[in-house]
Amino acid sequence: MKVTLIPSVLNGTVSAPPSKSCMHRALICAAVSEKETKIICDTFSMDIKATISCLRALGARFEYGDGYVTVYPIDKNKKDETQCVLDCKESGSTLRFMVPFAASLGKSCKFIGAERLGQRPLNPLLSALKNNGIKIKHPADTFLPLEISGELSGDVFEIPGDISSQFITGLLFALGNMGGGRVKMTSALKSAPYIDITTDIQKQFGLSIEKTDDGYTVEKGACYTSPGEIKIEGDYSNAAFWLVLGAVGRGEKISCTNLRPDTLQGDSVIIDILRRMGAKITVEADCVTVYKSALRAIEADCADIPDIVPIISVAATAAEGTTVLRNIERLREKESDRVKTTVDMLLSLGADIRADENSIIITKSSLHGGKVTSANDHRIAMCSAVASTLCTENVELDIAQAVSKSYPDFYEQFKMLGGKVI
What we know:
Layout: E1 3-6, E2 12-15, H1 20-31, E3 37-40, H2 46-57, E4 61-65, E5 68-72, E6 84-87, H3 92-104, E7 109-112, H4 123-130, E8 135-137, E9 146-149, E10 156-159, H5 165-177, E11 181-185, H6 192-204, E12 209-212, E13 215-218, E14 229-231, H7 236-248, E15 253-257, H8 270-276, E16 281-284, E17 287-291, E18 295-296, E19 299-301, H9 309-316, E20 319-320, E21 322-326, H10 338-348, E22 352-355, E23 359-363, E24 370-373, H11 378-388, E25 395-398, H12 410-416, E26 420-421
Parallel strand pairs: 2-15, 3-14, 6-7, 10-11, 18-20, 19-21, 24-25
Antiparallel strand pairs: 1-25, 1-26, 3-5, 4-5, 7-9, 8-9, 11-13, 12-13, 15-17, 16-17, 21-23, 22-23
Helix pairs in contact: 1-2, 1-6, 2-3, 3-5, 5-6, 7-9, 7-11, 9-11
């Protein structure tokens, strides 16, 4: 789908969509609890639908209501030798969470997916599972289709912490279902806030988890216990687009509600980053308001916040001086090579931007508009929309539907604030 984004003045208030990170985790915990769980969530992105589809294939049931879904857990006493087929679509979280989780259930499974999913790193996780009783089969040049069988055993899983925090989360889900155990990291952890989200959700489902010097320990005798009802908080990763828009757009201000002030989400640091850049921001209860501001360049370590690097790059085009975003290597393993696609998108619009092995460097620029592609990456598509408000001419965006991966209502919200999309 192609759209044309017309430079517009945007003002007003928008509600942050439910946190994708929290929703994945709540669904998985609910699927192995002792009774049903009502999850309050009014939007279901493609990634969340992929996780629901996989849990359904494993035996969970779902009933939808107005603004919620009720999860009926998997019957773990029901033995079925039939191979389950789990379609993870394009969701890296779904694949990396579900492989160890399904293994902990003793299920024979075939995992499939789309786009770049089979090329994204998986070897360390598969090695940890092989070392603990799981048989694994996949083609030589890709991880998909991936077949697993056998019974996951053991109570200590060794894995590097600097490739993907999703590996550690997947193993924590498995250990919670296996009655406890340890994840021992053989290298320093990156994206630690995502593990904090995992353990927080698991604690809401009755698990006790201890952080150690080299990993995490799930208490012996652990089992998931439903809280009955859980509400999914707003997503800071997606709210970041609106907060940056408030600072750099043509309007007076943008307010974003449904943002928990004491969140564990690492991408909430977007507020601190924008303040460092000079943005005027107020926070009241669950509402963050960002005012049109004169920004200045900064240097930032982005090792723990890869998902918001593209939208920080957009903000940097309006910041006086040269912004340097460091430790961005992991962006190359996302839905696209997100270093390349961020640079290509902003270059196409007239930005002064370049990348080296470890950094993205952006100097204040006047954006003129032009033709860009999302490369089927949801965050690049949303960045293009925000960047269009800085342009003097229209932005023609190809593969605009990529936003449905995490934020299916994005264009409707953009138009509600005054954006023009045709």
